[in-house]
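To the wet lab folks,

You asked to see what we're planning to order before we commit. Fair enough. Below is the target structure as tokens, and below that is the sequence we designed to fit it. If anything looks off to you, flag it before the synthesis order goes out.
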């Protein structure tokens, strides 16, 4: 097992305790990773595995704020005993292929969502296509995002997008502070869909694209689809599985 720890003092203290009772190896040599921290720490650990093209199961222990992707941390925890009872959840990220106004090409992965956001005070104008067919000729607003089920409770939910059950095989396409079309609130798409965003009037209305934590500025076009070859495994304690937490989140008040 490998241990990935956030920089928070609480996580460092918990890591010191765990190191006393277990032998840990570097991430590149591990068969499984235990992540101490919050959702951001888990996302960074998953992205590190994607970048290394070495995907191993990840078990998170929450020492952050929300901990949606994490399990409950307890003092005197026996990690191996809990790992013997975990449930496996398969998740696949979005692959973003972005082209800038200068013609540069970038390829990034997003476990939560890909967001297109205006760079200046000028309203963004974006053409939206699904499966090579234009569905919105001109969306005017602060931007638009495409979210996976894992990310549907994050930025997507804050933008009034729908919460998606993990096994829904759907994606949430959600406008961000839309001005026109006034009545369009977004769409739920099958996860086999290919989505294209094309920036209109880019010189006057520059737009950036953000794949989780990686940003590309001055976008011309973004193409998105699920990267099934990058399927990852999250581990959850019984009763704390991500699909149950997604359902519970819809009844939170």
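Sequence we intend to order:
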């Amino acid at each position: 097992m490998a241990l990935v720890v956030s920089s928070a003092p609480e996580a460092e203290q918990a890591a010191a305790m765990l190191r006393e009772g277990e032998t840990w190896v570097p991430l590149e040599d591990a068969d499984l990773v235990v992540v101490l921290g919050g959702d951001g720490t888990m996302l960074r650990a998953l992205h590190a595995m994607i970048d290394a093209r070495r995907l191993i199961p990840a078990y998170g222990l929450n020492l952050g704020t929300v901990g949606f992707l994490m399990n409950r941390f307890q003092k005197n925890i026996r990690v191996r005993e809990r790992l013997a009872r975990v449930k496996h959840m398969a998740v696949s990220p979005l692959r973003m292929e972005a082209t800038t106004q200068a013609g540069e090409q970038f390829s990034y992965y997003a476990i939560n969502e890909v967001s297109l956001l205006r760079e200046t005070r000028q309203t963004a104008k974006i053409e939206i296509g699904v499966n090579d067919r234009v569905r919105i000729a001109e969306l005017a607003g602060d931007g638009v995002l495409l979210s996976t089920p894992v990310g549907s409770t994050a930025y997507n939910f804050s933008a009034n997008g729908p919460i998606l059950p993990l096994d829904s095989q759907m994606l949430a396409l959600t406008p961000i502070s839309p001005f026109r079309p006034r009545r369009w609130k977004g769409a739920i798409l099958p996860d086999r869909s290919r989505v294209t965003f094309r920036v209109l009037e880019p010189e006057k209305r520059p737009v950036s694209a953000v794949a989780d934590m990686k940003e590309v500025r001055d976008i011309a076009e973004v193409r998105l689809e699920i990267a099934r070859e990058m399927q990852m495994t999250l581990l959850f304690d019984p009763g704390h599985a991500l699909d149950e937490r997604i359902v519970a989140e819809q009844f939170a008040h």
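Structural context that might help your review: The helical segments are 9-21, 39-52, 79-83, 155-158, 242-249. The chain is about 15% helix and 40% strand.

Thanks,
Computational group
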